[in-house]
Amino acid sequence: MRTLRDDPADAEVPSHKLLIRAGYVRPIGPGLYSWLPLGLRVLRRIEQVVRDEMAAIGGQEILFPALLPRAPYETTNRWTEYGDTLFRLQDRRRNDYLLGPTHEELFTLTVKGEYSSYKDFPLILFQIQTKYRDEARPRAGILRGREFVMKDSYSFDVDDDGLQRAYDAHRAAYQRIFDRLDVRYVIVSAVSGAMGGSASEEFLAESEVGEDTFVRCLESGYAANVEAVVTTPPAPIPFEGLPAPVVHDTGDTPTIATLVDWANTAGLGREVTAADTLKNVLLKVRQPGGDWELLAVGVPGDREVDDKRLAAALEPAEHAMLADEDFGRYPFLVKGYIGPKALLDNGVRYLVDPRIVDGTAWITGADAPGKHVVDLVAGRDFTPDGTIEAADVRDGDPSPDGAGALVSARGIEIGHIFQLGRKYADAFSADVLGENGKPVRLTMGSYGIGVSRMVAVLAEQHHDELGLRWPSSVAPFDVHLVIANKDAAARTGAGELAAELDGLGLDVLLDDRTASPGVKFKDAELIGVPWIVVVGRGWSEGAVELRNRFSGETQQIAVDGAAAAIAAALA
Amino acid sequence: MRTLRDDPADAEVPSHKLLIRAGYVRPIGPGLYSWLPLGLRVLRRIEQVVRDEMAAIGGQEILFPALLPRAPYETTNRWTEYGDTLFRLQDRRRNDYLLGPTHEELFTLTVKGEYSSYKDFPLILFQIQTKYRDEARPRAGILRGREFVMKDSYSFDVDDDGLQRAYDAHRAAYQRIFDRLDVRYVIVSAVSGAMGGSASEEFLAESEVGEDTFVRCLESGYAANVEAVVTTPPAPIPFEGLPAPVVHDTGDTPTIATLVDWANTAGLGREVTAADTLKNVLLKVRQPGGDWELLAVGVPGDREVDDKRLAAALEPAEHAMLADEDFGRYPFLVKGYIGPKALLDNGVRYLVDPRIVDGTAWITGADAPGKHVVDLVAGRDFTPDGTIEAADVRDGDPSPDGAGALVSARGIEIGHIFQLGRKYADAFSADVLGENGKPVRLTMGSYGIGVSRMVAVLAEQHHDELGLRWPSSVAPFDVHLVIANKDAAARTGAGELAAELDGLGLDVLLDDRTASPGVKFKDAELIGVPWIVVVGRGWSEGAVELRNRFSGETQQIAVDGAAAAIAAALA
Fold first, then answer.
1. Average pLDDT over residues A119-148
2. Do you know which NCBIfam families this protein is assigned to (chains A, B) (predicted)?
3. For B356, what's the count of Cα atoms within 13 Å in the CB-facing half-sphere?
4. How confident is the model at residue A114 (pLDDT cuts 50, 70, 90)?
5. Cβ atoms within 10 A of the Cβ of A136, count?
6. Which residue among A293, B115, B210, B340 has the highest number of C-beta atoms inside a 10 angstrom radius?
């Protein structure tokens, strides 16, 4: 092994810098890394923890090729849908192949081919395998590579209850895996309530360098992707005593900011903020196989429409903002002054933020240039077609569980569990004979863990300013034995101590180089084996030093019986 | 798991049929296979044996990507040389990549990058990795796939002695590996003496379905690739008393057969066979970077020039038979009547088979149409430029070690050890600082084992008419426990016995299906776990049956203490 003194020039995150400096991985090309001996040992230990826990829930390990023929991916349309992210190639006969980014198709085909009866289920198959994705921006070393190791498993059941049990078993197994790996993580709902709260959850490792944003409630532990946050609506307000709507000439006020400025100088008798205005955003939406249709989304003027939340709410439909040329086709849409009246009068589907409950009064467009309406009351003056979770989520918003405020955080996706249902079974007509003698279509769950990414996640979460610090469950070695004494007897004794520790079942990294003690200590701290044993000046007085890399604590151990004492301390 | 009753239609060799029927692998595409749970367990156990023995000789395990950038393979020209066998692809930025068929370039670059001093050597690095080769004819299931698992290791040394030590260590490690795996194999010299007898050896598993031909001497155990066989020359014959050469008019005799016919009717006073004639074959040869030059090869007329032996003898030069249009450029070459005189008079390089020693008399061409010379004596009437090992090797030829006759056999290449020398170090200028303070170029050895192929090799060598039979070292399970008794107590007892065996550290495959005993026994024989325990009719009398899958022997074991007794029998 070889450590480097300087950070690599292109490394932007701590794990990337440290894994290279400490000799765990080496770049070969963009998003492509070699695993050096230290890194490979950590990777293999993580794999083993994952394998153990998958076996414990009855998972059977298999292994598919990474090089796959095009046909199955054509059947599911993913040959095309994957776009540039798929590595495609041809063989010498000009047949199309791909490098598997994920293996739903192969798992489904295998189960369809091997099994024929409900008696063969439930079934969980998994593999720990090298995957390929041609990421547009590979980044942060092995955090987002183009060749990486994933555990992917699939559950197959003949009914929804079975799927739920398999999902729950995976969820519990993932918790055990991540606990054993000593990773700090949260489980976030990945989709909103519409699909059922537990149909898709992500395991995110907490990390400032993460690419995923999520929100959490520190009081209750609630956590969710922003797509999955359900807005807490205020209580409706009785209409009684509310002022009547009045249309005002507001001049050139096509934006919320100009409208608020006008309102605060118009003598309305109260201070107005953007939250008092109602902004109507025009979209076009297309269901799969359908035509484009208009959709208006109304949100309080202090919030933006969050495109990811909007997409999740509209799924499986696709959507696009209404372009200027489209506006021209609808003369009743007066850009900058669109109000509920014109939308509803002209049959435009109109969905609003859940905060726009009955009795709330809004300043909004009056459907004519330079005109807005004040005190337009929801439920009295207009009735939208429904609500939509499309407004952005902000720090301070109430947690859906009512326990406190939401705060946003960043995370790295380390696991994803997902009730696929019958999507792939439908694509391949994967039926088996049911208990009643009739064919029954299989239902599937899909469950992934980023195995190679986990090496970086652990490096990210556990390092300090001196270097890496591995949890015992994944450390490349149990003990790093540093010889910091040139005396021949000490060197010989250190070798014997290493052999004794090895005999006790501990993996020992012995640094017997002729380098200076300072260089060796620095390397030991950088490499991050959790326990460091120093055979140093104390040797002649009959003592070695045992250091804990996490706490920094040291203790003197008598040379006599040192191996047993060290093993006891580690246990 | 699922067994199949019938052989797959496209399977031509026993291992392929059985591995599919018994549920070890499944085809995904030409030369692409999925590993089902049983197959993956065998594969992993083989990997572990290889890993152990590589670690035992100081090998350090690393792992390179399979997806590799073009540049290093451009440097060594293998991007082109590999031809259609290389899977090539482009990423989204249109940069060229390949799927690694072998990793010499990456190992060399890694060592060049990591190490700088002679003190860092000797060094052995290895990986157990998925490789890709777009074989023209993938065949025999996993025996020759397009995605396969290989162990490849490389030794790096600063001098030739170091390389020899690394080579010897690998040779011994390979013997231990193949012995532990219970594979029948021979070690064959892979190149002729010119490069040094031990510079390249292949480990061939003995198998009739093998693609490699080799020759062996049953008396001495000598074995070699045909390329490596060294001809035993006869003793020279004194010239004294040998008749003088006479040119004859032989009519239309351009072939050996017509020449022999003529000789036996020409009244030469002796019976003539093809072995008495000297056939001169004209080639053109080009050294790397050089021009094409003429070469004539003389062999006894009863032998053909073996193209593989010729190529090995001429390496690194390339060669081609002289085409008809080329003959026209050399008027002294009279096709069908070419003799040594015209060759030597016109400065054509002339190499002969080692059997053509001084004093041997030949019937050969006289360099004119319809004319041959009889009794042309080597060393007296012509003196070739040297000898060449180009004539074919035949059953019955004397073994080079003089112990007996050679016989040919077929084998499957399972390992190859090779002293690469400085070829790749030269390509990448891989130098380190030597002990004397001056740069020293590294020298390398290259060592491979076909890991996934070994699954098929073992299936090929150990199966019988009933199915597979795995050596204990690689069996997917230690014990196959068959419940052949519908009694509830027997079923419960079998489950408890399985748990006890598991508790003793044995891997147990428990067949608790409701299928008939006959179906289960057939499956057990097909699957080939080395020990089968039957909980059957004897259960009520307090006995289970223990069967050895190799010998077919059975013994009755008392239910009381059965687990310990079975464990003892297995040990």
1. 92
2. PRK09194.1, proS_fam_II
3. 38
4. very high
5. 11
6. B340
pLDDT at B193: 41
* DSSP code for A397: S
The widest CA-to-CA distance across chain A, in whole angstroms, is 97
Residues of chain A contacting residue B92, judged by C-beta atoms under 8 Å apart:
84-85, 134, 136
Of B33, B37, B88, the CB nearest to A61: B37
Cβ contact B64–A89 (<8 Å): no
* Strand duo B96-99 + B431-433: pairing: unpaired
Distances (CA, A) of A394 to A214, A218, A279, A409: 11, 14, 18, 11
C-alpha distance from A91 to closest chain B C-alpha (Å): 7
pLDDT at B6: 83
CB A570 within 8 A of CB A547: no
Handedness of CA A18, A23, A28, A31 (dihedral sign): negative
Kindly indicate whether the domain formed by B479-570 is annotated with CATH number 3.30.70.1790. Answer: no
Per the omega criterion (within 30 degrees of 0), is the bond before A122 cis?
A: yes
Buried b (16+ CB within 10 A) or exposed e, A337-362: bbbbbbbbeeebbbbbbbbbbebbbb
Residue B467 to residue B491: CA distance in whole angstroms: 26
- CATH assignment, A37-62+101-229+407-459: 3.30.930.10
Residue A98 has pLDDT above 60, yes or no: yes
What topology is assigned to B246-387 in CATH? YbaK protein (3.90.960)
| Phi and psi, residue B557, nearest 5° | -120, 135
All residue ranges of chain B with pLDDT < 70 are 191-198
pTM: 0.85
For the four alpha carbons of B157, B159, B163 and B166, in that order, the dihedral sign comes to negative
Burial class (CB in 10 A: 0-12, 13-18, 19+), A35: buried
Cα–Cα distance measured from residue B126 to residue B114, given in angstroms and rounded to the nearest whole number: 15
pLDDT value of residue A153: 97
Do B40-64+103-229+407-457 and B246-387 fold alike per CATH?
Answer: no
- Residue recorded with tokens 């200590």: A521
CA–CA dist B238, B357 (Å, integer): 11
Q: What backbone torsions phi and psi does residue B135 show, to the nearest 5 degrees?
A: -60, 140
Q: B29 to chain A: which residues are within 8 Å by CB?
A: 65, 68-69, 97
Q: Where are the domains of chain B?
A: 40-64+103-229+407-457, 246-387, 479-570
Which ipTM did the prediction report?
Answer: 0.84
Q: What is the predicted pLDDT for the residue at A194? A: 41
| DSSP tag of A103 | -
Q: Which residues of A touch B (CB under 8 A)?
A: 2, 23, 26, 28-29, 32-37, 40, 43, 60-69, 84-85, 87-89, 91-92, 97, 99, 106, 110, 113-115, 130, 132, 134, 136, 146-147
Count CB-CB contacts under 10 A for residue B24: 30
Nearest to B35 among A29, A36, A63 (CB): A63
* Residue range B40-64+103-229+407-457, CATH number: 3.30.930.10
Q: What is the pLDDT of residue A195?
A: 40
Q: In 3D, which of A138, A295, A17 has the Cα closest to residue B93?
A: A138
Dihedral angle, C-alpha A52, A53, A58, A60, nearest 10 °:
-50
Q: How much is the pLDDT for B28?
A: 93
Q: What is the pLDDT of residues B484-519, one digit of tens each?
A: 988 898 999 999 999 999 999 999 999 998 889 999
Write out pLDDT tens, residues A443-475: 999 999 999 999 999 999 999 999 999 999 999
Question: What is the per-residue burial (b if ≥16 Cβ within 10 Å, else e) of A457-489?
Answer: bbbbbbbeeebbbbbeebbbbbbbbbbbbeeee
The two structure tokens encoding residue B175: 């013997």
